[in-house]
Design a protein that fits this description.
The complex is a heterodimer of chains A (118) and B (350). Helix content of chain A is 0%, strand content 47%. With 118 residues, chain A is mainly beta. By secondary structure, chain B is an alpha/beta fold. Chain B has an 8-stranded parallel sheet, sandwiched between helices. The longest helix of chain B is centred in the N-terminal third of the chain and has 20 residues. In chain B, 50% of the residues are buried. Classes of the chains: A mainly beta (118), B alpha/beta (350).
Amino acid sequence: MASKGLPIAEVDEIPPGGVKLVRVNGIEIGVFRTPGGYAAVKNVCPHMGAPLCLGRVTGTFAPSRPQEYSWVREGEILRCPWHAWEFDLLTGEALQVPGKRVKTYRVTVEDQRVVLHV
Amino acid sequence: MKIIDTDVHPRWRSQDELAGYIPEPWRTRFIERRFSIPHNGYPNPTSSFRHDAVPPGGGQPGSDPDFVVADLIERYGMDYAVLIGDSAQLNISALANADAAAAMATGYNDWLIDRWLSRDPRFLGSVYIATQDPQLAAAEIDRVAVHDQFVQVALGSGARMPYGQRFYHPILAAAERNGLAIAIHPLNEGSLIFGAPTPAGYPSYYFEYHALAVSALQTHLVSMVVEGVFEKFPGLKLVIVEGGVGWLPPLLWRMDKDWKSLRVEAPWINRPPSEIVRDHVRITTQPLDEPGNPDHLRQLCSMFPADEILMFSSDYPHWDFDDPTRIFTGFPEASRERIYYKNARDLYGL
């Protein structure tokens, strides 16, 4: 079934790195401004139910050899406010926990408005 | 379901709020930072607290009693929350100055009574003490134990020697005569006058410290069993806080095996150590182990008397909070009743 777009903000309303929480059909969703556009995830951590979207937007370390650090993807990773699990804002996947993911939603920009597709 | 949360951390809103309860001259020295509460130098790399537990009026998580009531006790319908000092603020037994430490304990206990225990009867307290001078500590226990919301005496797992040793017996005797359990919580092992956080020295990362924090708890548990503490103080109960659960069955097996061969060193141990633990020791559940196969946790809990020994804890408002509705989900209802409520009710005489 084709999803119906829901305008949730003006394009400049959510600053880079920021989030807007919206409730659609009883589901709380965080809409994030990422370096490449927008991303939206359900505000429930699949691990223990924490309000995931209250966590910090950050980057992550790419896999590396011991004692080497490579910080990547700043602004595309959401860290849970409870147990600090890292989630890929673009895919919803928990980086260290294969098979665990938070539900994501498509976000578009139409007529200068941010549109959430639920 | 009835719930008693056996590990909740209150904080003061500001250093000044606590300072008002500390006797002089230590109050002024504390305010002027002539001494401070030591930390072992292993801060959590992201946060020690749940970001969503900040009180509506601001301040640190756990610093607003009314918000703890709303955000924890009433949200989950808890009957009681056992308050116990957290590691970042209450590491006074690591201070070199025994009298400064004892004054801090007095200030903390009076602050807890005034700001928390008096606020809501569902808050239960842990008496805080400084272990440098066991006689002073025993006197502090006797002083505040008249307040009937205190249910236990809190010790940190950071120590100069294991808690079964006779140096500490005045503290254990005071707990027993006042009907208080002894609770041992991980607490900045490796800071100031304490030994290193692991028997092999200082690890590099908080990751390692956190994964191994149970090792100091195990040391104290084995010490108290083998030194005969529970024979000398038959009314004494011990609560191991915030070490998780999974380590317990193999330690009980090992102690029972060693007892068969090595009782000659400790002839006052006249029954298997696992029986002493069953009768005298309770374990709080957080941070609960999360094996990839959830059935493994149920199997693990069949390897020791979990229904008698475990007590639910959340560790609110800390980062590794366990949500009571999300753990032990596949356990029989009778087990859940004991773990979430009855074991703590019976231990604390509620």
